């Protein structure tokens, strides 16, 4: 789009802080415009003169605004041409390959054996507990509204003194469930507060869903690669995993799943992360979502939707959940505020579809109701517009962090490295040159003071040994940059010294 | 003991409130002496003259002090003899029968089918949601240190602003675990902070213990009667329950268990509440505890100890946990602060014995770490002597509430009613005349505005249909008295009108 169409004076629900200097307020307006896609990579910024006229500011203020945006790596000066919205240098790296759809159908569903690999990983973490963590799944605390949540907690305790000493309601705080139901409506799901059961994070929700629809020995179809926590849950419940090829751009391969449902009639459930798949970062297109829900409904099996990243997808309007296409209770929707709002609070919830009563009983038998305090704090926070403002800022920060990390990876990793830029969130699923084992890479990186996740723990079938998952979870861009460059040099050394195959 | 030996001027860790009138401070001293057994039922109180001299107070103050103790039903005036520590009128009711040890050995272990009964019960609760609850398992909020916990929470939030937005440690807050380990030492268990995993209440701890040592289809030996939550956990995990006779005074019948271990080699675990068994209120003697641990260790099966009521046992020094006799990791100890300190906080923990690593992995797979906020609040509270003071007060309050309820039951329930006074806590396991079905009694009571727990949900084998569990959980003695009297009249009517058998 042309810069002439961009009018940063337009209505904004963000109230500019009175204490911010003017140049920073203006830079923030442009930062938002870039963050939400109103200004796109390669767009020309207004000339200095146009900027001064448009905003009625001095040359000094205009210059400072542009410097601020340059420092944030959002715009670049091109000699004799002016300023442009920065084009991420990820374009320099080839995208990851689409999965080989032929690889799956013959594979047998396996009992999962991932606990020992995770245990080994965790005990290795202890070798260097102060390593910079590029392997996590939540952003650093400074990206979350720490102060506001703290104040909301103090308010809640003052208003309701017996929060800590009176037993709470079984399904969770009614006010919070009402707010969640209202928000689900915006995400395309018609549910009521009574359809929601609060859980100890999304992980407990996922476990309850699996327990509700399977018996030990049953087979569950999962994405490949998939979140290792799901594999752990399957193992601990005695379930078999059938890994379905999953695209780095469009998510689960529906045709491969359809074929698997024919060849494996013992599949009792499919588990999918439709929005910002972990670790791929893919977002399933609406048409795929519709087909997936229809496929599971016809097959009569549960579709378990793990959806904690939906609100981190780039753009002003997050995509819809699979639940939006559900007409007969096929979809069990699991999510939490753990990634989007408060990693220190274990507040998740589940909408159990037609298994709702059984899930309610399992939750009661497994851990009773959740504590009320966190729920009341969140209800207080979510009543205001603060959550939407926070989400916009978080998406902007993560986008900037992703671009910087993508540029650092492109600049420093060896030839043969590939990845598909994710559409939001913080995960990079990076394919290293085939010569580099991710387990050896993990160990060498840890010894060098950087924690990453090796690809081996994202599959039960021994795939992805030359993949790693990086997280751009820190707002300290320079620290992350430097670490990624060190990782790149390490990968280059390992690729060069690998024995020829 | 003679009243002359009682010296209320002795050192006390309770600081008398400066704002309390003198007569109440003195009454409180005697209340404590009665509560902790220094003065026992039937002991003569000092004469008025002796009281005035000993404490240097006026006749008016002495009289008010005694009136206060009379109002609290702690002392009685006997004409021309003076004042005496009240003898609980429970002596007027026959004790419950010891279990029939012959009933068990032939019984087969059953898959549990309790969910539907609980569901039916819960939906019936909805019929009269405002019924007075004499069926609960936690005391009313005014018996817990609401203000102090609230202040501790505000302090914790101020000191550690990122408590809500930073991910917490895997096993739980280290400071809290260190305090728990120190307290466990006092209870006779030699464990370190690393041996403790924090859980979402004692119920999650129990579930993890069962999952760690069993596979679906396995048999678990349980007390009969036992806590219905345990039966729910067994059902949801696909386990069979073998009910072992349990004495209302000494708990699980060890000989019956020994026999069952011979006849049922498929028993994988025994679950026991050694201190204030739910619903019986029994406390297992030390000698029994030692034998039970030894029996399970020799049989090579897990002994799961559910121990949330230990600190509610009457007396200055709570009894020891089974864990105190454990030398080889046979005992898995599960407990929480839910009954003793903060029913609104879901803070439990587990010491997994030799299954500790597996339990750690299951906990991670099932629900990750607990939220830190509650744990930090509790750590702050437990650092001081406030918890011990609270426990003493809570035990005193519960003792008074039990005596009043026992008196009301004895006075108003029909002939044929039996129960053994519990040694602490709040449960009354009452055997009604055989003509009265507890299910019918439950429904009639609920229609009359009183919620009780029918005995049927405390067994998977259809026992205890003419038993009920009452809880003296409220500090409102008169309200409870009146409700118990109504229940007594109801039982009498139902016994009178039952068809002759």
What does this protein look like?
- Chains A, B: This is PLP-dependent aminotransferase family protein.
- Chains A, B: It comes from Paraburkholderia sprentiae WSM5005.
- Chains A, B: InterPro entries: Aminotransferase_I/II_large, HTH_trans_reg/aminotransferase, PyrdxlP-dep_Trfase, PyrdxlP-dep_Trfase_major, PyrdxlP-dep_Trfase_small, Tscrpt_reg_HTH_GntR, WH-like_DNA-bd_sf, WH_DNA-bd_sf.
- Chains A, B: In the C-terminal section; belongs to the class-I pyridoxal-phosphate-dependent aminotransferase family.
- Chains A, B: GO terms for molecular function: DNA binding; DNA-binding transcription factor activity; pyridoxal phosphate binding; transaminase activity.
- Chain A is of the alpha/beta class and about 500 residues long.
- Among the domains of chain A are: about 5-85, Orthogonal Bundle (Arc Repressor Mutant, subunit A); about 90-100 and about 125-140 and about 390-495, Aspartate Aminotransferase, domain 1 (Alpha-Beta Complex), CATH 3.90.1150.
- Helices cover about 40% and strands about 15% of the residues of chain A.
- Chain A is built from 15 helices and 16 strands.
- Chain A has helices at about 20-35, 50-55, 60-70, 115-125, 145-160, 175-185, 200-215, 230-235, 255-265, 285-300, 355-365, 370-380, 385-410, 440-445, 475-495; strands at about 75-80, 80-85, 110, 130-135, 195-200, 220-225, 240-245, 250, 265-270, 300-305, 330-335, 345-350, 425-430, 450, 455, 465-470.
- In chain A, strands 3, 5, 6, 7, 8, 9, 10, 11 and 12 form a 9-stranded mixed sheet that branches. The first copy, chain A, has a 3-stranded antiparallel sheet with strand order 13-16-15. In chain A, strands 1-2 form a two-stranded antiparallel sheet.
- In chain A, a hairpin with a 3-residue loop joins strand 7 (about 240-245) and strand 8.
- In chain A, helix 1 (about 20-35) crosses helix 13 (about 385-410), helix 2 crosses helix 3 and helix 5 crosses helix 12 (about 370-380).
- The longest helix of chain A has 27 residues, at about 385-410.
- Mean pLDDT of chain A is about 90; it is low at about 1-15.
- Chains A and B meet through helix 4, helix 5, helix 7, helix 8 and helix 11 of A and helix 4, helix 5, helix 7, helix 8 and helix 11 of B.
